[in-house]
């Protein structure tokens, strides 16, 4: 039989365990509530935008020559005669089911249209982000360690070029030189017509699908189409990532712990990668995530120049055609992308830096 002291210790240990679990539980609940509130706020914003724009959804569907009877019938069918709060409740329910209505251009559901074009943009932006990160992060680190060296000057020139040169001009020049003159890359589009019948789409990412089929000729053709637009997009991401990484590293290299580590005899690059870069990793991840989000929603000009059937091009065409269902759906998708990337960043922060847990 346990004595009173043992019972008191067990009770206090249990209380401490509960006190440690409660902040985690409430912290998780707070995060979920914040996430839900962000999505609801985004949905409210797109709802208001859809109501304020000077485009009549009924006339956009029926045309200007519609009769008054047809207009009134469709107006009631769309629920536009109901109070705004009721319309917003129906709108939230539709959004929760990924129902954005039908596209006025194709007549198909907007969700199906987005699912059709989004993989093309995601594949392009992901490859561009990989190129920009793999080159940009080491370039920024080396430029910070060897300030005012040749590497530092190259990093600055690339940053200036990435910030100032328009993507559409780089795309046109790339097509003229690398495609028309030298033949090093393939032309506009995602794939040559002669290879379309050999591609069996599984994921929607042509490079992945070609690799899954072990069809390396098809893979080479797809890669020849994507490498030039991805490299042009990667230049802007590389400029931002290398510049910010250099700035973060310079700030840390001037701290006292670096001087102390050098005085203890530690090698330069061991200090740089083991100590300094770990302290800036959280900031670099934030920069990479923001760059990736902007590539996903901001590749309109590149997709237009290269006839890339992607998300940005679809959204632009929908806006120019007054297809508000598609515009609102695309806006919601962009917002969700930013929210999810912030979520991923928060999770990575906890893995990399224990102080944020």
UniProtKB/TrEMBL annotation:
InterPro entries of this UniProt entry?
BPD_transp_1_N, MetI-like, MetI-like_sf
Q: Where in the cell is it found?
A: Cell membrane
Xref: PANTHER family: D,D-DIPEPTIDE TRANSPORT SYSTEM PERMEASE PROTEIN DDPB-RELATED, DIPEPTIDE TRANSPORT SYSTEM PERMEASE PROTEIN DPPB-RELATED
Q: Which family does it belong to?
A: Belongs to the binding-protein-dependent transport system permease family.
> Which PROSITE patterns does the annotation name?
ABC_TM1
Q: In what residue span(s) does the ABC transmembrane type-1 domain sit?
A: 118-349
According to UniProt, the name of this protein is: Peptide/nickel transport system permease protein
Going by the UniProt record, its keywords in alphabetical order are: Cell membrane, Membrane, Transmembrane, Transmembrane helix, Transport
Q: Name one Pfam family in it.
A: BPD_transp_1_N
Q: What is its main location?
A: membrane
């Amino acid at each position: 039989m346990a004595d009173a002291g043992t019972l008191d210790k067990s009770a206090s240990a249990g209380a401490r365990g509960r006190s440690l679990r409660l902040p985690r539980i409430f912290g998780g609940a707070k995060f979920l509530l914040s996430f839900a509130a962000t999505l609801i706020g985004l949905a409210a914003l797109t709802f208001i935008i859809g109501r304020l724009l000077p485009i009549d959804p009924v006339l956009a569907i029926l045309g200007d020559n519609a009769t008054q009877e047809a207009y009134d019938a469709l107006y009631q069918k769309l629920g536009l005669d109901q109070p705004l709060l009721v319309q917003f409740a129906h709108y939230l329910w539709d959004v929760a089911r990924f129902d954005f209505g039908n596209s006025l251009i194709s007549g198909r559901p907007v969700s199906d249209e987005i699912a059709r074009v989004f993989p093309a943009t995601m594949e392009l932006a992901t490859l561009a982000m990989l190129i920009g990160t793999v080159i940009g992060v080491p370039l920024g680190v080396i430029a910070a360690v060897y300030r005012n060296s040749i590497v530092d000057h190259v990093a600055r020139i690339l940053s200036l070029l990435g910030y100032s040169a328009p993507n559409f001009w780089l795309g046109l020049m790339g097509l003229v030189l690398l495609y028309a003159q030298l033949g090093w890359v393939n032309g506009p589009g995602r794939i040559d017509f002669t290879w379309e019948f050999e591609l069996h789409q599984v994921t929607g990412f042509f490079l992945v699908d070609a690799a899954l089929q072990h069809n390396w000729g098809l893979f080479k053709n797809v890669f020849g189409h994507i490498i030039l637009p991805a490299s042009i997009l990667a230049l802007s991401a590389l400029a931002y990532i290398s510049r910010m990484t250099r700035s973060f590293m310079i700030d840390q290299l001037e701290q006292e712990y670096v001087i102390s580590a050098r005085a203890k005899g530690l090698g330069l690059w061991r200090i740089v990668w083991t100590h300094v870069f770990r302290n800036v990793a959280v900031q670099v991840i934030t920069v990479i995530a923001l760059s990736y989000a902007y590539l996903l929603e901001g590749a309109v000009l590149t997709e237009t120049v290269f006839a890339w059937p992607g998300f940005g091009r679809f959204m632009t065409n929908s806006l120019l055609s007054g297809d508000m269902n598609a515009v609102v759906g695309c806006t919601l998708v962009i917002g969700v992308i930013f929210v999810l990337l912030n979520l991923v960043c928060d999770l990575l922060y906890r893995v990399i830096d224990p102080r944020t847990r």
